[in-house]
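Researcher: Can you fold this with alpha-D-ribofuranose in place?
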Amino acid sequence: MARVVVVGSINMDMVVVTNTFPRLGETLFGTGFSTSPGGKGANQAVAAARLGAQVTMVGRVGADAFGAEMKATLVREGVDVRYVTTARQATGIASITLTGGDNAIVVVPGANSELSPEDIDRAADVFEQADVVLAQLEVPYETVLHAARRARALNKPFFLNPAPAVSLSDELLDLVTLLTPNQHELATALQTREEAWADELARRPGQIAMTRGKEGVSYADMDGKLVHKAGFKVDAVDTTGAGDTFNGALAAFWSLGIDEAVRRANAAAALSVTRAGAQGGMPTLAELDTFLETQS
Ligand code: RIB
């Protein structure tokens, strides 16, 4: 059972379903509304836990109803919330417009923006026991950098899902074991052209797994040769959280090697889009195994 520490955001997702995305200045009728647990950090924690990993979340919520609900959800999923502490600001929220299975998201970080390097230091014991440390960029950059430094000092693999996209410093890039961007995030992270992705992957063998939506995932093997893992074909209901499922699964299965970990994470991400909500479709280990048996 992999021990995974997730440093990241916890949001309540406010999901509006529409037939088309609204244009600037336009008012539309929606066809549905729901709230569901989200946040890239919490999503990745839940994805890894459902697949059998022992997960500890390091994050912040507000002293409000959403915060209590989000923490309770994590506990129900078997995630250790000892290091999910209370902030002055309100729990983070994400406003998600869902249209035909696609989405547009606005995040208001709130409590997530108070996750500090001191919070990382307080979680020193779980860093020491971790097999993988996993982070995203919905919490402050200096906190992520601090977590990466601590992971390096302990010789632990540090995975960074660089979302939302920002340019990454050389220091942070050097501390990352595996970067998991999509094509746009890769270009922004490395300050390069989107078309240059294949060269960037080849330049960093085994260090970048680039997600390509339903096309699958690409990375370079240790010889610098490009490997493409095709996506699994499913009927998409809601793509929210597919990338998070991929990241959580990758951490859970990392001990199997990049090839097998990516194959399983790809399958988990495919399954995740077949049900509504960021966490709603994330598979359990048994569901993933059953799915993979039908695919081979
Ligand atoms: O990756 C999907 C997530 O992004 C949503 O759950 C939302 O909270 C935003 O953080």
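Model: Folded with alpha-D-ribofuranose in place. Residues 184 and 194 are 6 Å apart (CA to CA).
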